[in-house]
């Protein structure tokens, strides 16, 4: 194989030269460099000139016609349209010619196409009935009901005042409660209403929607939005009811995800999760001294430190950890076979301090091949010898 000499240094092959001089070579592979050498260039010339560009910067392959204007070179087109030369060369290499050298929206004769809507009302376009309801703040079910009752599209969307309203309707300006069969009188918060429809209008609710909810079993106050509807997501915090955790989090200015993750990962109550504050506490595991300082009740609660052997991918490894629950309940969630070597019962804070002491002392034995997706607490997995196991057992007390 022919030897390569470059700047008084000898290389066994072009591949060796390429690997050792990547920082100065403007090619992704040695094949490109080899091609340039076949063109008759020296190594210095090939490196200096770099990649062969498609098209010509000096007009060798020109002229180029774009939007009926002639250009002598590709760079001149790039400058005219505010594009990079690289972009123009790339488009040219992909077979783009003429006007296609320039992206459609960058061309000088480009005109934004007029959007065509499904229908128009008072000069405003809508893509669909649902789109019209959203833009006019009308529920789609209300719109459909109104259309079913014979309302015009403008009336159903609230764009136009309802015409030809029967005088006995509560919506009629002539209605005084005399020409209509009297509805059931109701009292809400010491205020008397002649009917459910009248109460609905007072509380800015759709009468038909309120009536439907009452018929489905909701109380009048629930149907009017005055009382929360009790569902499985209802949250009670400090004696006050909230529709769900998202509603509570928004009220107290915290992240719903933060509260939820604390409850699930740390096994604490809603009140304890909120008491830790709105800031995310970054830690190595589920607990740290900052958490315990903010929540003394959690620090002094009952806890366990455990030292177990665990079978992961047919390999015996060892795990050191702490839990508020029983060791068996904690590890059964991981889905791996395990055997308890030793455990220690004390306050959660004491367990945490001992756990951190052991992890730091034996950190060189950590099995870094175990990843987060394999199990929770993957940073607490170790590969110990029998002597180290005996030492750890002696330290746990």
What does it look like?
It is a single chain. This protein has 397 residues and is of the alpha+beta class. The protein has five domains: 4-49, no CATH class; 64-106, no CATH class; 119-156, no CATH class; 228-280, no CATH class; 298-395, no CATH class. The chain has 19 helices and 14 strands. It has helices spanning 14-20, 30-38, 43-49, 74-81, 85-93, 129-135, 140-148, 153-156, 196-202, 207-215, 220-223, 245-252, 256-266, 270-275, 289-294, 296-299, 327-332, 348-361, 386-395; strands at residues 4-6, 9-11, 64-66, 69-71, 119-121, 124-126, 186-188, 191-193, 235-237, 240-242, 302-312, 315-323, 338-347, 381-382. The strands form six sheets. Strands 13-11-12-14 form a four-stranded antiparallel β-sheet. A two-stranded antiparallel sheet has the order 1-2. Helix 9 (196-202) packs across helix 10 (207-215). The longest helix is centred in the C-terminal third of the chain and has 14 residues, at 348-361. The radius of gyration is 38 Å and the shape is flat. The two termini are 70 Å apart. The model has no long low-confidence stretch (mean pLDDT 82).
What share of the residues lie within helices? 25-40%
Distance from first to last alpha carbon = 70 Å
Q: What does the average pLDDT come to?
A: 82
- Tally the structural domains: 5
Within the largest sheet, what's the order of strands? 13-11-12-14
Q: What is the 3D form? A: flat
Helix/strand/pairing class, anyone? alpha+beta
List segments where confidence is low: pLDDT < 50 over at least 5 consecutive residues: none
- Total DSSP E strands: 14
Sketch the major β-sheet. 4 strands, antiparallel
Radius of gyration from CA coordinates: 38 Å
Strand content: 15-25%
Helical stretch tally: 19
């Amino acid at each position: 194989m022919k030897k390569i000499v470059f700047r008084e240094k000898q290389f066994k092959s072009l591949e060796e030269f390429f690997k050792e001089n990547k920082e100065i070579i403007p090619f992704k592979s040695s094949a490109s460099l080899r091609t340039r050498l076949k063109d008759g260039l020296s190594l210095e010339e090939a490196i200096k000139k770099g990649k062969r560009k498609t098209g010509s910067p000096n007009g060798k392959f020109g002229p180029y016609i774009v939007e009926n204007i002639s250009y002598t070179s590709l760079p001149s087109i790039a400058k005219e349209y505010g594009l990079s030369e690289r972009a123009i060369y790339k488009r040219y290499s992909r077979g783009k010619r003429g006007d296609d050298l320039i992206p459609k929206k960058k061309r000088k004769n480009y005109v934004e196409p007029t959007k065509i809507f499904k229908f128009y009302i008072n000069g405003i376009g809508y893509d669909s009935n649902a789109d019209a309801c959203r833009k006019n703040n009308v529920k789609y079910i209300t719109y459909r009901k109104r259309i079913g009752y014979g309302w015009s599209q403008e009336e159903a969307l609230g764009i136009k005042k309802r015409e030809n309203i029967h005088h006995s309707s509560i919506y009629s300006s002539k209605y005084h409660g005399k020409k209509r069969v009297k509805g059931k009188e109701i009292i809400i918060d010491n205020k008397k209403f002649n009917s459910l429809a009248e109460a609905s209008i007072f509380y800015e609710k759709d009468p038909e929607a309120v009536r439907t909810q009452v018929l489905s079993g909701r109380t009048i106050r629930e149907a009017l939005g005055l009382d929360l509807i009790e569902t499985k997501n209802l949250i009670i915090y400090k004696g006050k009811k909230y529709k769900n955790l998202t509603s509570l989090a928004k009220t107290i200015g915290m992240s719903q995800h933060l509260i939820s993750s604390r409850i699930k990962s740390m096994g604490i109550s809603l009140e304890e999760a909120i008491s830790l504050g709105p800031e995310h506490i970054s830690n190595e595991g589920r607990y740290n001294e900052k958490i315990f300082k903010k929540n003394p009740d959690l620090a002094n609660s009952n806890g366990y430190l455990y030292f177990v052997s665990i079978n992961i991918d047919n390999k015996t490894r060892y795990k050191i950890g702490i839990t508020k629950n029983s060791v068996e309940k904690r590890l059964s969630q991981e889905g791996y076979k395990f055997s308890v070597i030793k455990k220690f019962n004390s306050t959660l804070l004491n367990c945490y301090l001992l756990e951190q002491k052991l992890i730091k002392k034996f950190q060189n034995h950590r099995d870094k091949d175990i990843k987060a997706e394999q199990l929770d607490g993957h940073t607490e997995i170790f590969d110990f010898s029998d002597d180290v196991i005996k030492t750890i057992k002696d330290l746990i007390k």
